[in-house]
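Morning. Coffee machine broken again, so started the prediction first thing and wrote up yesterday's gels while waiting. Chain of 367 residues, entered below exactly as on the submission form.
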Amino acid sequence: MEKPVNYFKPAVRALSVSIAAMGFTISAQSAAAQEISCGGPYTISSGDSLSGIAKRVYGSAADFQIIYSANVDAIGPNPGLISLGQQIYIPCLGGEAESDADESLIRKVVTTEQLAAPTGNGVRVVTATDWAPYFDESQEQGGMITELTNVALAAADGNPEYKIDFINDWGSHLQPLLTDHAYDFATAWYEPPCELIDQLGDDAKFRCNNFEWSDPMFEILLGYFGRANEPLPATHAELAGLSICRPDGYETFVLEEDGLVEPAITFGQEGLITGCMAGLLDGTYDVVVIAVDPGQGAVMELGAQDQIMLNEQLTKVMNLSPVIAKSNPRREEMLGMMNSGIAAIKADGQWFEIVNRHLSAHRAQTQ
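Came back before lunch.
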């Protein structure tokens, strides 16, 4: 998963429709002419983007991810590719309902030493903090994805007993905590494109060979940031020859799957997202690749909103999912439990209620 930092702020730039890819003649006036309000359907018009719709409904383009989360099955993996005439649902922000999740099942653990393996029907899940609004001990229910994991297991087939522990050392989660079976699941991690294993690096190959992911828990947007005064590449292939930064410890398979490895590119790392963005400003790097929200938070932290911009054409959707070791003797049973719970909370509306509540609260705190 993305290494957590403390620069998580709302997105400030619009994620727009790729006009060339859609092949439409766009008139912004047609989009503005249609009335739009939350709590009902909306038909996509010429000139629309999810961020533009969010700006009109909620007053902030940053809330486009709430609309996307409510319509991910209809829109598909690219939130920039909405279709003229497509009908989507516009949710209202917030959510007055309180969480039904049992927060007593979430525990704070300070050790990274191997713990006793679960017994009987118990399922042990490990997560960590400092990646708001997704994982954070200071937030309600430990953050959005922590709560999603909690309610999914509560709704899972077989009524499993389970515990969710915070161990605030992300690097220990896959190995040794999962590989030694001290825990069953780590939540939540990106799944590499294992069908492209021959072009992946050693870390991604290790994950492909040793771990298995549940069905997707949540979709996060991966962004490509460049200097605002320079032409932005239209395809990932056009990044060849450039200098690209990812913060230290972050997955590199997001570059490897597009062939963006040395010597085709120059790859650099910094300790923090702000370090990569500062390197973009001083010319050390040409591109910074990072999840959209923390990336734009770092841009705001540097006061560089007019100097750095998101390259909307290259944005990707990345699935965050609980992961289990292939060597776990109960792997198939536990994956079945987790997947049944994820399906149940998506079907009965709990999934979106939780996503909406956490994202809305996060926006209110950071705007």
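Residues 104 and 234 are 48 Å apart (CA to CA). Going to sketch it on the whiteboard this afternoon.
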